[in-house]
Structures are given as structure tokens and as C-alpha cells.
Amino acid sequence: MDKNIGRRGDMGLYIHIPFCHTKCIYCDFPAYPHLDAYYQSYVEALIGEISRRADGSSVSTIYFGGGTPSILPIDAINTIMKAIYKGFQVQKEAEITLESNPGDYGRDQLKALCALGFNRISFGLQTFDNRALTVLGRSHTVKEAIDNVCLAAAVGFEGLNLDLIYGLPGQTKKDVHHNIEVAASLPINHVSMYGLQLEKGTRLSYLVDQGSISLPDLDQVDAMYDTMVEGLSAKGFERYEISNFARQGQYSHHNLRYWLYDDYLGFGAGASSFYRGQRITNTASVINYCKALSNGLAPAQSVEIIDQNRGQEDFCFLGLRTAWGIQAKSFRDLFGNSVEDQFGSVIEELCGQGLLQVVPGGYALTALGAKHGNYVFEQFIRD
Length: 383
Hints:
Blueprint: E1 11-17, E2 19-20, E3 32-33, H1 39-53, E4 58-66, H2 74-87, E5 89-100, H3 107-115, E6 120-126, H4 130-136, H5 142-155, E7 159-166, H6 173-185, E8 190-195, H7 203-210, H8 218-234, E9 238-241, E10 244-246, H9 253-259, E11 264-267, E12 272-275, E13 278-282, H10 286-294, E14 300-305, H11 308-319, E15 326-327, H12 328-335, H13 339-352, E16 356-359, E17 362-365, H14 367-371, H15 373-378
Parallel strand pairs: 1-4, 1-11, 2-3, 4-5, 5-6, 6-7, 7-8
Antiparallel strand pairs: 8-10, 9-10, 12-13, 13-14, 15-17, 16-17
Helix pairs in contact: 1-2, 1-10, 6-8
């Protein structure tokens, strides 16, 4: 792929903090508990990687994800931010997000984050059901979550997101409705709501295989999905991406970079980048990551060159995750030909099935298509 095929104009930065208090039973991300001894060396390695790759680019979004970034003390977050400000031109109005476990930071720490430039916080609540939180291995209670969300709003965070999950063990449609009611009553402007994924190798997968835990059946999950979409819409949340809902246009601009095929750099163990037509993935091992950077080596585990064919596929199925869908002009500007020339028969068939629809400027999922998104995306993958 041509090095300029990504729609450069500015840059997004992702900082991965791979540490957690406990490992949630459903999690297969590069996130590790009981590695306190590595916090300092990991931050030093992060500083090294940021300095190594810094090129003075203009940055409009910064996202600290995990794991649990709020497991680090504020001084460590400050050290990382100083390296970012030194190596990049962070825009005055940049969106700067930190994922947090409810209760990790009190008033003083939250105010300190605001002083460092953070203006958006994302809380991993998952559910407003204490029993379910215990089953999942979460370390907070419902009260701690509600109190922390309200505190974050009070100290000045402009963007507040809640992560919620449906399809949990023992969960019902009534529980999903309750989660939406409580979430909508809080001073938030964004909800990310995901269906539970049963990933091989996780504790949850083992417990399900052993018969110790049962999950809702497909019909029940389907009903929860409908409850989620209808309930959040009724509360004034716009669905702008398959799993993401915003009030008053308060989208996650960093995550939009992924879906709209824009460049971003990822730093940290297990982090990925999309930059100048390459997808770069770092080693997920904290030890190997720290060792590589202490020896002056790049921590990348894989580098994939995205050719024209793969780029067109990625652009389509990522764009279809959003309410704006595949924008025909952007496709032509990037690839030099029309989306109809490349995928006309696929688009025609999916429209005929009621899964795609014509929208201003392109093609987007219908409500039915959003429910069967994975099937639609697969149709844009050429053999």
C-alpha cells in the first residue's frame, strides 16, 4: 500500500497499561495481575518507546487503555504524559482519555488527572449487579462505581463513558434494562455496551466447559441486544457505532480513528499501530517488552504491510461499524477507484437481503445488518 493511504492530518496515540488488580474471568487481553514489581521498569520502557518513535506529529487524541491504567500512581501517569508532550505536538483541544477501575482514584487523583490534560474517563463497570460483579472477578461494588462516576463529573471531566456487558451468566433482559436505567441516570455522555464473548483459554471458558457456569441462550442474548439498543435510544443516546452510544455528539474521537481508517501509534506491551500503511504489533510479554527497550531494540513482534487489496477490505468493514458506513468519496480518494467497482455485487446482494442500505455518501448497515454485523463484514473479505 502507498505510504500515504491512511488519511493523515494528525495522529492518535494509544498507551497500553497491561496491569490489573485481578484477571476478569472473561478477559483474553494482554492484562496481568500481581506484577507490581514491574511497574517502574515498564513505565521506563514506555518512555523509551515513546522517545524512540516520537516525530513531532500533531496529536489530536490520546488514549490510556488496559489492563487497568488507573492501577498506576498519578506520578507515573505524569511521567508518561511528559514524554508524550516532549515528543509530539499535542493539540490544545486534544481528547485525552484514561480507562479506570471504579474506586482506584479518589477526588485528589481525579483532579490531578484533569490538571495533566485528561478530559475524558472511561469506567469499566460491566454491570450494576453486585452478584454478577463477584462472579466476573471484578474488584469494585455498584456503590463504588456510582460514587466514582459522580465524583469524576464533579471534578471536571467533560467526557464520561461506561463500559457495560450483556449476555452475562445468569443475566436476564430485565437486568439489561436495569443497567440502562441506572447508567442513564448518571452524569455520563457515552456508553460502550458489548455482548459477552466466550474466548478460549479464559477462566470463563473453562467454567462453562465444566458446567459450573451457564450462559444465556442465543434467543435470550438476542432479546438483550434489542433491549440495549431500544433502551439507550429512548434515553437520548445516539448509536454511532455497533457497540457505542453517545449523548449530544460526544463520540469517542480516538476510537473513531480505528473505524475511519486513520493513523495511530500504539505504545506498550501488546499495543498495535496503524501507520503509513503498516500494522505493527508489539510483544505482549511485559518482560520481553521491557528487555527489548532496555537493550535499545524495537519491541515489535510483527509488522504487516497492508496492500491495496487488504486496505480496501479493512476500510469497508471498519467503516460499516459506524453509522456513516462506507463513504464512497473517501474510498475513491484513498484507493483511486470506486467502492462499487470493487464490491458492487456484494453491496447489491447485501442490500437485497436487507442488511445494507444506501445513505448520504455511501452505504451503511440496516438495523438488521447491525445485528448480524460479523456476517456482513465477512462478505467484504476477498479470497
